[in-house]
């Protein structure tokens, strides 16, 4: 492809007919060639999203898709209760034969320009060390390091936690502890009662029964709900899943929808005791409880203005459910 230049490419919004080529590139780029769940995972994430379908852009050469960039729709509530429309910079891929032409940058900035004109407020993500410099060069700024908290099940679990410093598995370990979240949130009743305990301060995801139903619906993720009282969902609960990280199994605490710190801490300990997970992990924001701070270990949140200014670093009140997986 040495004779091809950036001027030979056509950039436009993605269309359904692009799906087959895009999926092949994403599988190859992200190491998902042998993952049987990957196509349905993308459909759940980008087409079924409670906040709306994901806008995406492609680069073409001679009518063939050679680059792809998509943004996941999201909505936050500001401290005053107003909705902040946002997008998350997520999946992207470039055909290996066309690397070095600036396709990632071109598609990203095209998306940013069109989303700004459409009135979306901000773009955010938690890029890894390899991709973060590229985002910073395109106008992203570091907002804050998100505060991770952990709780080991016991002294032996400390060893497992310390020696399992590898990325967590994408798909979950099955467990029958608690309720199957897909069933629990299939109708809005239980979600409505749990959401009475959602945080009302800071910049937080606009959680609704529809959001909880979508967020926990994808079967290979095996999300569970542990209630403080089986007969009374209004007493609070936590949403969690088990995932393997090296030799350890961690209980990822996505949401703590609880009335007080004591209830949250009790539920985290119960999840550990009943599942046998080595430790629990989550973000120590909002009504997070029972988790001990893990300094300098959280993901770095980055933001960029579109049609609105991003929140200040101290305003963010994110949970693990907002950032894990995507």
TrEMBL record:
State one Pfam family annotation. Answer: Acetyltransf_9
MF terms per GO, please? acyltransferase activity, transferring groups other than amino-acyl groups
Q: Which PROSITE patterns does this entry report, sorted A to Z?
A: GNAT (PS51186)
In terms of superkingdom, the source organism counts as: Bacteria
Domain N-acetyltransferase: from-to ranges = 9-166
Protein name listed in UniProt: N-acetyltransferase domain-containing protein
What organism does the record attribute this protein to? Knoellia flava
């Amino acid at each position: 492809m040495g004779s091809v230049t950036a001027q030979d490419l056509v950039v436009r919004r993605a269309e359904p007919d692009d799906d087959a080529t895009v999926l092949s590139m994403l599988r190859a780029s992200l190491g998902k060639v042998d993952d049987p769940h990957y196509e349905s995972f993308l459909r759940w994430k980008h087409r079924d999203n409670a906040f709306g379908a994901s806008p995406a852009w492609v680069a073409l050469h001679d009518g063939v898709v050679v680059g792809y960039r998509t943004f996941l729709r999201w909505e936050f509530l500001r401290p005053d209760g107003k909705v902040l429309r946002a997008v998350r910079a997520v999946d992207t891929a470039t055909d290996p034969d066309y690397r070095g032409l600036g396709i990632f940058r071109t598609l990203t900035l095209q998306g940013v320009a069109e989303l700004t004109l459409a009135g979306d407020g901000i773009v955010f993500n938690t890029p890894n060390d390899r991709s973060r410099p590229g985002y910073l060069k395109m106008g992203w700024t570091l907002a804050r390091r998100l505060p991770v908290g952990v709780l080991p099940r016991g002294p032996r679990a400390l060893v497992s936690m310390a020696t399992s410093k590898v990325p967590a598995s994408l798909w979950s370990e099955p467990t029958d502890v608690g309720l199957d979240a897909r069933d629990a949130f299939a109708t809005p009743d239980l979600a409505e009662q749990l959401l009475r305990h959602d945080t009302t301060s800071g910049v937080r995801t606009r959680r609704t029964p529809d959001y909880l139903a979508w967020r926990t619906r994808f079967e290979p993720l095996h999300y569970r709900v542990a209630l403080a009282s089986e007969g009374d969902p209004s007493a609070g609960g936590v949403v969690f899943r088990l995932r393997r990280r090296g030799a350890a199994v961690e209980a990822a605490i996505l949401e703590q929808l609880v009335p007080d710190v004591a209830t949250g801490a009790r539920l985290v300990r119960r999840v550990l005791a009943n599942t046998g997970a080595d430790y629990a992990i989550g973000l120590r924001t909002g009504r997070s409880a029972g988790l001990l701070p893990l300094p300098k270990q959280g993901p770095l949140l980055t933001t960029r203005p579109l049609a609105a200014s991003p929140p200040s670093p101290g305003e963010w009140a994110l949970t693990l459910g907002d950032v894990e997986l995507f």
